[in-house]
Amino acid sequence: MSKLILNHPDIVQIVAETLFDHNAVDHFTSCPTEWPDGTASDVIYVSDAEKYKPVLIEVQRNVDQEFLLRLISYSVCAQRKYKKPPVILVFVISTINPAIRDQMVTNQEKAFLMDFPCDVWAHSCHFVDATSIADKLSVPLHPFLALSSFLIDEQPSLLTHTSQPDPTIRKLYTLAKRMFDDYLVKEDTLFHRCTRIIDNTETKITNALTSLRQDVPTIRQRKRTEKALEEGLHLICSFKRQCRAAEDDTENESDTVPPPTTATSAISLPSSSTNDNEFVQSWLDTNEWVHIPWQTIYQEGKEMGQFKSINSWKSVKSGYYRWSKRR
Q1: Closest Cα to residue 282, out of 290, 272, 274?
Q2: What region, left, alpha or beta, does residue 202 occupy, with left being phi > 0 and alpha being psi -120 to 50 degrees?
Q3: Residue 301 burial (CB count, 10 A)
Q4: Are 287 and 268 in contact (CB under 8 A)?
């Protein structure tokens, strides 16, 4: 959520004016943060005016030596891409390693910033944490202090924020709610789009299996094609279950594998020539697992026309182990 907030144009203006001057507010935009070495930093603002340096922003819970090395790497990547050494701004949520803090000095012009030495690898490097802003939070807040407090305090609700009456704080919570709602809508739309694709694919594979068995009655002739289609159908059904389980988790429902829905139960698969134990082996080969979920395998197999003469997952388990020893 912090990245979404920091990428908002109003927030870009607040940061730009604080780090540079009022004239900078209309010159910065948020840009992608993926670097050629495969890493990605949190946020970067780039100016269309030559005199302003890029602004590289990180929101970091704990600042230690490892983070500093990563920060230097981001800065070098930004400098190579934009041909200017960046101004670095780090919002620290929790702690700063004492050895690193000892190297920081209070910024002469903006006392809420702590400057860290960055010769060669950045133009300037500023840190903000709870201690640097603690004695400066009188309402109405400076917009940058409001932003810092919002990010660092991590209060889930405006009602619990100590600077609740401040107009910038209230605006930030309004922005956060709007962005989060939009994000959920996008995620929900994507989920249902994926579900429709899965349902359509499941139907097409089932129809293909039916046609194959009707048009090619000889098992030997259709065996390889039939097996490939059945494995594809198994993968689709497995992924469908995972999607439903994920949806149930978000609604705080049961974590167990959900029972077949009406739509799934209504699919009547023709009898399969695939050996039950080969089905189990295929399932194990194509899914990630720590402990073999025999009940899930049994349930999915039943949906796909397997285990016709087997009445429990325990029988599937014992039968598979006997079969695997004879292989």
Answers
A1: 274
A2: alpha
A3: 23
A4: no
CA dihedral 285→289→290→291, nearest 10 degrees, is -90
pTM of the complete model: 0.57
Q: How far is CA 27 from the centre of its chain?
A: 30
**Rounded to an integer, what distance in angstroms lies between the CA atom of residue 205 and that of residue 203?**
6
Q: What band does 283 get if pLDDT is binned at 50, 70 and 90?
A: confident
Which residues 6+ apart lie within 8 Å of 11 measured at CB?
5, 147, 175
- Which phi and psi angles does 265 have, rounded to 5°? -65, -25
Strand order in the sheet with 28-31: 28-31, 43-47, 55-63, 87-96, 124-128, 114-115, 105-106
Q: Burial code of 198-219, b = ≥16 C-beta within 10 A, e = fewer?
A: eeebbeebbeebeebbeeeeee
Given the DSSP bridges, would you call strands 124-128 and 87-96 parallel, antiparallel or unpaired?
parallel
The secondary structure element, H or E, covering residue 18 is helix 9-19
Q: With beta carbons less than 8 A apart as the criterion, state whether 187 and 38 touch.
A: no
d(CA 61, CA 68): 13
Q: What are phi and psi of 90, to 5 degrees?
A: -120, 120
Q: What is the pLDDT confidence band of residue 24, given thresholds at 50, 70 and 90?
A: very high
Q: Are 3 and 33 in contact (CB under 8 A)?
A: no
CA–CA distances in Å: residue 236 to residues 71, 119, 246, 283: 42, 55, 15, 12
